[in-house]
Design a protein that fits this description.
By secondary structure, the chain is mainly alpha-helical. The protein is about 60% helix and about 5% strand. The longest helix has about 45 residues. The structure holds heme C.
Length: about 140
């Protein structure tokens, strides 16, 4: 009896240890990217899209649960690399300002800032990686 209890406890501790060992580094990698991205957002995007991602009425669109922020990663990366000038409509409001290119940012910086906006302002979407930005940049040249 004692033996079985011991076995269960030891197995349990082992499984907890394994999951902490495998999941924790992944989470801290994501958090590190989000933290770096927040700094880039503050320097490069905040003046137009605002601290809370709410944008500026009829000028700069919000980044809260829009199809661009949550949608296809390649399209989102392209917006940062090329800028945007097509005009957008979000919640029946039109936005027509010009967003300039931010191609001077590194692949890692773009990945971080996009990971930040996809996990901030009430958004929840997968991280963007440096490799994904690199691939899109190579195609958009
Ligand atoms: C000069 C102001 C300005 C800056 C700086 C700026 N944007 Fe934009 N952004 C805009 C405008 C204006 C649009 C809409 C363009 C249009 O009408 O086609 C836009 C569109 C977007 C969109 C798609 C529409 C939406 O709301 O989902 C995303 C995503 C985006 N910007 C992210 C960023 C990120 C990330 C940064 C920083 C790297 C950034 N922007 C910097 C003005 C800006």
């Amino acid at each position: 009896m004692i033996y079985w209890i011991r076995l269960v406890v030891v197995t349990g501790l082992f499984l907890i240890g394994i999951s902490a060992w495998t999941i924790a580094p992944l989470q801290s990698k994501l958090q590190a990217s989000i933290d770096r991205g927040k700094i880039i957002y503050t320097q490069q995007c905040l003046s137009c899209h605002m601290m809370d991602g709410g944008g500026v009425q009829s000028m700069n669109p919000p980044l809260i649960r829009t199809k661009w922020v949550l949608g296809d990663k390649a399209d989102l990366i392209t917006i940062v690399l090329k800028g945007m000038n097509s005009g957008v409509e979000i919640d029946a409001v039109q936005y027509h300002n010009i967003m300039a290119s931010h191609a001077d940012l590194s692949d890692q910086q773009i990945a971080d800032v996009l990971t930040y906006i996809r996990n901030g302002f009430g958004n929840k979407a997968k991280a963007v990686t440096e490799a994904e930005v690199k691939t899109v940049r190579a195609k958009t040249h």
